[in-house]
Amino acid sequence: MKIASPIIGGSGLEVYHHRLALGLSKMGIESEIYKFSPHWELFPWALRWKAEAIMKSGSPCDLIHSHAEYGYFFGRKDKPLVITLHHSSIDPNYLAPLGVPIRIHHQFFLKPWVKKTMGLADKLVAVSHHTKTTFCEVFQKDFQIQVIYNGIDPHVFRPLEVQSSGAKRPIVVFFSGNPTYRKGFDLMAPVMKRLGSDFVLHYTAGLRSSPTKSLAISNIKCLGVLPETELVKEINRADIAFQPSRREGFGLSILEAMACGKPVVSTNCSAIPEILDHGKGGFLCEVDSVDQMVAAIRNLGHSFELRQEMGNYNRRAVLGRFTLQHMSNRYGELFRGLLA
Fold first, then answer.
1. CA distance 337 to 323
2. Which run of H or E residues covers position 231?
């Protein structure tokens, strides 16, 4: 069996497909990912011909697996189409703070394509119950959507022994993701100013090719774009993971930190409470509440025992519910069922 996965790259979507392909390969299912630049989002109607030309040059596939925003342009009449819903970029709550041109594009151009994609799909999957509910609410329709949580390889994302200099050092707070409003990147500066020199924030530059946003504050350091092996090391060097998102279809960066045995400070919104247990694996703050975020990070920063307890809880949660093997098995069953 071979799966073709045409996608728009430059986000967690790309990471998701590469990891799923790895998991499926261990089940004897081959995957080929066709990645398109985010610039194609400006000319999506041209994707149909571009994708067809590129996919014809590869070996034949049995099934197409893509995403809601542009899956309509990747579909083929003779191939089953599986669409995974990651986060709703047409949700009014997501669009509200964005600029007028973006809102117009998403509402009047993207939304009809998403609707066509969902109507064309042979099977719809959502990465969380929140994402499933959001799509049903946007279109006021009770779609038949299967929920399959994202998973990661706990042998890759795992606790590592990190060398300590022995000297007293600041508490390291870690953020991973694209530096966007949705991810709460603008909250980093006020939070770190309040925390002061006893805390330092290390953050990655994300996957988009746009220039990295810099934060000219002494206790904030940009690590740039990290390969996966370095990402795992940096998570392990940190004491606390911080993801102040305003909207998450799932929250892959949170899961990565959990798998590495780190406590997480995040927000009580969208899909995040499905992953992170408040008071057990970290703290869920009100969206945009700098006060609560600062208090939660300080609380963890002042107690090594609490960080260990919550980090261990998170590691167990990943092993029990969010492994790559679990995710791959469910997709494998789905794909085989469609081709039976």
1. 22
2. helix 228-237
Check: CB of residue 7 under 8 Å from CB of residue 33: yes
Four-way CATH pick for 2-151+323-339: 3.40.50.2000, 3.40.30.10, 3.30.70.20, 3.20.20.70? 3.40.50.2000
Mean of the per-residue pLDDT values of the chain: 91
Return the CATH number of the domain spanning residue range 171-321: 3.40.50.2000
Sign of the alpha-carbon torsion through 94, 95, 96, 102: positive
The pTM for the full model equals 0.91
Q: How far apart are CA 105 and CA 113, in angstroms?
A: 11
Q: In what order do the strands lie in the sheet with 240-242?
A: 220-224, 199-204, 171-175, 240-242, 264-267, 282-285
Strand order in the sheet with 123-126: 30-36, 2-8, 63-67, 81-85, 123-126, 145-147
At 159-180, the pLDDT tens digits run 998 876 556 789 999 999 888 8
Spatial distance between the Cα atoms of 25 and 19, rounded to a whole number of angstroms? 10
In the block, residue with structure tokens 């579909």: 75
pLDDT computed for residue 49 by the predictor: 79
SS (H, E, C) 144-203: CEEECCCCECCCCCCCCCCCCCCCCCCEEEEECCCCCCCCCHHHHHHHHHHHHHHEEEEE
Q: Tell me the pLDDT band of 308, cut-offs 50, 70 and 90.
A: very high
Q: Based on the number of CB atoms within 10 Å of its own CB, is 32 exposed (0-12), middle (13-18) or buried (19 or more)?
A: middle
